[in-house]
Amino acid sequence: MKALLALVSLLALAPELVLAAPFRLATNAATSAPCGPLGSDANASKRALFKLLAQRLDAEVLDCPVAGFRGAAEALAAGQVDMGTLDPESYAPVAAKVRAILTLRPKDGLIRTQVVTAVRGGSSFKSLGDLRGQRLVFIGVAPYDRDLPRKALADQGAGSSYFSKEVVAASAEEALSQLRKQDADVVVMNADAWQRSCRGAKPQDQPCGDLRIVWKGRPRAANAVVVHLDMPPRLRFQLMGIYVAMHLEAPDAFIAASAFAPGNENFDGAEAAALSPSHVIK
């Protein structure tokens, strides 16, 4: 994620891409309708969003009414719009044609930090699917130590009943010790805690060389801003740069852009499969 944000920042300084055609933005409506110029009855925040996009993209921005998440998914898959908002249910049927680029960060909520699940290097476990009925240890009770990893595992199909036992250690060091002593079979923690625990004093040091990661990923997003897979990367990153800074640069526009999930803090860049984890346990 840090590398992604760095790339977005770098591209924001480069000359902007000139669009050969209008940019078509899917907006939520009671019924779907053809794209057209923004109506004169649009509210102030929606006018601010369209003005910002037109200025930054140096192109006409068309309003494309769609009937909810499903309407946006159908329009994206058919190539009728360039960007829209989906949820996991609407994303699934069109997953082969679209990709997520942005998610919203909740106020006072958990950020979609990456989670790492690891086992002893000599064990036979190769994936989350092999861990059914095994003993799981968390590294603490703090939200990013227990709630976030639990959500990420549950999204993969490994809910609390998936494991034979769940234990909460006092620290990452204690959790890893339990794993090594075979008092637990699998440890789960956020990626930052894993990096801190497994970083040696020297580059060649490998404090976690006796352990093996079997899965890493993020909790599934509740919804995400999505584009067609064919969108040029330059335009995709330009849009990400506009949206990530929108809450600071254009608060009124942010209100309209985030209207599908009010009360959130800002947009974050997202991985392509933010709405659909790649290895869901059946």
Report the end-to-end length measured between terminal Cα atoms. Answer: 28 Å
Q: Report the sheet-strand fraction.
A: 15-25%
Shape descriptor reads: elongated
If classified by CATH, what would the architecture of the largest domain be? 3-Layer(aba) Sandwich
Determine and state the CATH class of the largest domain: Alpha Beta
Q: Radius of gyration, rounded? A: 21 Å
Q: Which fold name is given in CATH as the topology of the largest domain?
A: D-Maltodextrin-Binding Protein, domain 2
Q: Which spans have pLDDT < 50 for at least 5 consecutive residues?
A: 10-14
Q: What order do the strands of the largest sheet run in, or round the barrel if closed?
A: 7-6-8-5-9
The helix-strand sequence is HEHEHEHEEEHEHEHEEHHHE
- The helical percent reads 25-40%
Question: How does the helix and strand content classify structurally?
Answer: alpha/beta
CATH superfamily of the largest domain: Periplasmic binding protein-like II
Number of domains: 2
Describe the protein's topology.
Blueprint: H1 2-12, E1 23-29, H2 44-57, E2 61-67, H3 68-77, E3 83-86, H4 88-91, E4 98-106, E5 115-120, E6 135-138, H5 143-155, E7 165-168, H6 172-180, E8 186-190, H7 191-197, E9 211-217, E10 224-228, H8 233-244, H9 246-249, H10 251-257, E11 264-269
Parallel strand pairs: 1-2, 6-7, 6-8
Antiparallel strand pairs: 3-10, 4-10, 4-11, 5-8, 5-9
